[in-house]
Amino acid sequence: MGLTFAHHLAQTVQAKLVLCGRSAFPQPPEWSSWLDEHDDQDPTSQKIRRLMEMERLGADIMIAQADVSQLTSMQELVERVRHQWGEIQGVLHAAGLVIPGNIASKTPELMRSVFAPKVDGLMVLEDVFQSVNLDFLALFSSLSSISGGSAVDYVAVNHFLDTYANSCAHQMGNGSANRLTIALNWDTWQMTYQEANVSEDLRLFYERNQEANIGLDEGVKAFDRILRQTFPQVVISSKDLQVAIQQHRTAQRLEVVDTLSADLLKSTDGTQKSYPRPNLRNAYVMPSNDVEQIIAQFWQKFLGIEPIGIHDNFFALGGDSLVGSILVNQLRDHFQIELPVQKLFECPTISELAVLVEDILIQEVATLDEQEAEQLLAQV
User: Fold this and answer.
1) Segment 256-281, tens digit of pLDDT
2) Which residues have CB under 8 Å from 26's CB, separation 6+?
3) Which of 23, 140, 277, 375 lies most in the core, judged by the most C-beta atoms within 10 Å?
């Protein structure tokens, strides 16, 4: 995300850009030799080409290795920038680390590593720029601070950013501060499965699910609009908000999935809150047969949306790879068939999935004797 906004600033205002990270990165005089020695797929080479394009657009670029959570490191960097270019006008605090897992799996050391870049980093930035009249301080938060989730450390650090921004707005209101500080609660951005660091098995999901996520152009346009107003906290998503929140709550559902029994479809206790169907491009069409009805009930239970039509796309409803895996496992158990997870990516609507299930059942029935066939069909 940092490079995306850097490119935008290079293109629109030919900005002087300081790109700071903890890891070492080749300096501009080393870029040409690096590109000669590495292929086009090398991640560093790809970043260098983007940086070179920014320079061609008129930006001045400084590459700095510094840890935002370390006061001395940032003080030295800020002094270096002031000496070379003058006062800093704006800061994008995009540092962050996500470590999957619920609270029971986290050690104090792991949680400190999640807190360091966002919380400690923000406190360092406050100290370093306390006497500087910045035009803006943009804090890259996450929708997870609103939706919650099992990764409570990541939820907490983003909520801290949100609270800090609102506190700064209160100080501006009483005249004790004059710096615009904004928490940006980003939903998921479009990315390749390699960038998302997921397995080849989930490649199809990430390729098919991109339309529902924030595009690069959408993100930078939203950022421009946000900087023109004074709200201390802004949620950015390309989906219906309730759908986006449901998707972020996947991890919470995973924690309780083992408690779900085979009578899932008959559950009418009403304890799980459902959200109304979001506005989709296609009209609602109700299930027309038993297989469609069964699949629809599973989707409604796990996605938390009701009703769901047979032509509604699973991914447009906020479904993701985790919920998809659970759904497919439940369908396997219910219909007693072999159903690969990848088939959900190929058949992302109830209608398509129902046809696939029926075809598999027909093929399996053909190999059984009469009694076995009756037992299998009784599952439907």
Assistant:
1) 343 333 333 344 344 556 788 988 88
2) 34, 44, 48, 63
3) 140
